[in-house]
UniProtKB/TrEMBL annotation:
PANTHER family membership: COLOSSIN-B-RELATED
Name assigned to this protein: Isopeptide-forming domain-containing fimbrial protein
Domain of life: Bacteria
Residue ranges constituting the Sgo0707-like N2 domain according to the UniProt record: 192-319
Region (Disordered): 47-67
A family per Pfam: SpaA
Organism annotation: Brevibacterium ammoniilyticum
Organism ancestry: Bacteria, Bacillati, Actinomycetota, Actinomycetes, Micrococcales
Signal peptide stretch: 1-32
Annotated TM spans: 437-456
UniProt entry keywords in alphabetical sequence: Membrane, Secreted, Signal, Transmembrane, Transmembrane helix
Length: 464
């Protein structure tokens, strides 16, 4: 606000104050020629009431109270203002009960009322608007600089511009306003950025997933600027940032990006801020690698979009993962676990395998799998046994499934038990009791033959 706040008309300093306030947040009509510092009532008390509303800027006020403020917008609670008395000019006290005091502020603007231009200031007073967006401060006669210094969490994009106000405030017809109402407006951020999650690049852990953040650029007051624009994405510990892309803008020129571990942020430069247009979208794509399941396998992600002093958040989409665990054991004996069974994992029988797992000495093998996004927390998978443990046979049908794998952590897997039969022994030679019987029979036969031969020899000998 660079226009002159106070412009004297002849010898009437009050007229100067009226003209000035029309340019600093309150608007007044020039008082009549007969109005002068001399008709100010020095016994009156004065106050400033700040009425804070959200909405587009309208016509300037005149310092009077608006009886029906419903058309002004939404009242904003918690907004902080700092009211600073302008104490002296060129070493002289600014006393607005005197003509000399009004003469000192002739030509004052919000831009030139600075210490460098000969002004000094009193002790600042901080005030905060209540639930009705209002705060009243009793103040002595004087010139005051009023600045908005805190947003109160109201997502303010364009704060009220600083302004000067006199107490009392000159009105038309030689009148003075001792209790002044001002209505500085704000432009708040009512946009809602969104965040979407893609399906992973593959179905087992170690896959990449891309989060797309769409951030509408909020409106601002016409004479305001975009002073900052950032998107902050603090990743879950189970995610690691891989890449960041920003549609329509050039990294290093329009923005800087940080993609490191669980940090995925962008910040616009002054060049990029100059390219922002209200109502258009800034689209940021963050590609992350899923590194683990954690306690529940449900990995959520939320981003924060900051424009000037406003902060708005996205929703919390999730990428969901679960653990599939196989127990391989000997047929009819679960305690006899089998190592070396090899399975391929599929999400459909006519597709390509997602991965391959092999049972260990405890008979177990596991794989961590994607099961869905957001509300989808289960997905069907199939196992195909392609190699049986040593000494065991592949089942006639190698497929097992569908198996509904549910989202879960390392200690809550979806389990499936699969047994194998041992291989046949084949034809073995007779042993044991049957073999001994044959030897016995053979021995008896030989004995009988020997005895027969002896008898025949004895008989022949007698006949001879």
């Amino acid at each position: 606000m660079k226009a002159t706040l106070f412009k004297r008309m002849r010898w009437i300093p009050a007229l100067a104050a009226a003209a000035a306030l029309s340019l600093v947040g309150v608007s007044v009509n020039a008082p009549a020629a007969e109005a002068a510092a001399g008709n100010i009532d020095p016994t009156r008390s004065t106050s400033l009431t700040i009425n804070k509303y959200d909405g587009p800027q309208g016509a300037r006020g005149d310092g009077t109270k608006i009886d029906d403020p419903s058309s002004l917008g939404t009242p904003l609670a918690g907004v902080e203002f700092t009211i600073t008395p302008v104490a002296t000019k060129d070493g002289q006290t600014i006393d607005l009960k005197t003509d000399a005091g009004w003469n000192l502020i002739d030509g004052a603007t919000i831009g030139n009322v600075t210490e460098g231009n000969g002004y000094t200031f009193g002790t600042p007073i901080k005030v905060t608007t209540d639930a009705n967006g209002q705060v009243t401060q009793d103040l002595p006669f004087g010139l005051y600089k009023v600045e908005e210094t805190g947003s109160g969490g109201n997502n303010i994009v364009s704060p009220a511009q600083p302004f000067l106000v006199t107490l009392p405030l000159p009105q038309s017809g030689g009148k003075w306003l001792y209790d002044v109402n001002v209505y500085p407006k704000n432009q708040t951020n009512k946009t809602k950025p969104t965040k979407e999650i893609s399906n992973p690049t593959k179905l087992d852990i170690g896959a990449d997933v891309t989060w797309t953040i769409t951030a509408p650029v909020p409106p601002k007051f016409g004479d305001d600027t975009y002073r900052s624009f950032t998107i902050t994405d603090s990743l879950d510990p189970r995610l690691t940032c891989k890449t960041i892309e920003l549609d329509g803008f050039t990294e290093g020129t329009d923005y800087t990006a940080t993609c490191d571990g669980q940090t995925a942020n962008i910040e616009f430069t002054s060049t990029g801020l100059g390219k922002l247009k209200a109502g258009e979208n800034v689209v940021m794509k963050v590609t992350t690698t899923v590194t683990s399941l954690g306690d529940n396998g449900v990995i959520e992600n939320q981003a924060i979009v900051t424009t000037n002093d406003s902060k708005v958040t996205t929703g919390k989409p999730t990428t969901n993962w679960g653990k599939l665990e196989v127990l391989k054991y000997a047929d009819a004996d679960k305690a006899s676990t089998l190592a070396g069974a090899v399975f391929e994992v599929y999400d459909s029988k006519d597709g390509q395998p997602v991965g391959t797992i092999t049972t260990g000495a405890d008979g177990k093998a596991s794989i961590r799998l994607w099961v869905g996004n957001n509300d989808v927390q289960a997905k069907d998978y199939y196992l195909k046994e392609i190699k049986a443990p040593a000494g065991y046979t592949l089942p006639q049908d190698p497929w097992t499934g569908p198996i509904s794998v549910k989202a879960g952590g390392e200690n809550s897997p979806t389990t499936i038990d699969i047994s194998n039969k041992q291989k046949d022994r084949g034809e073995l030679p007779f042993t044991g009791a049957n073999g001994q019987l044959m030897l016995t029979i053979l021995g008896i036969a030989l004995l009988l033959l020997a005895m027969g031969a002896a008898v025949m020899r004895y008989t022949r000998a007698r006949k001879a």
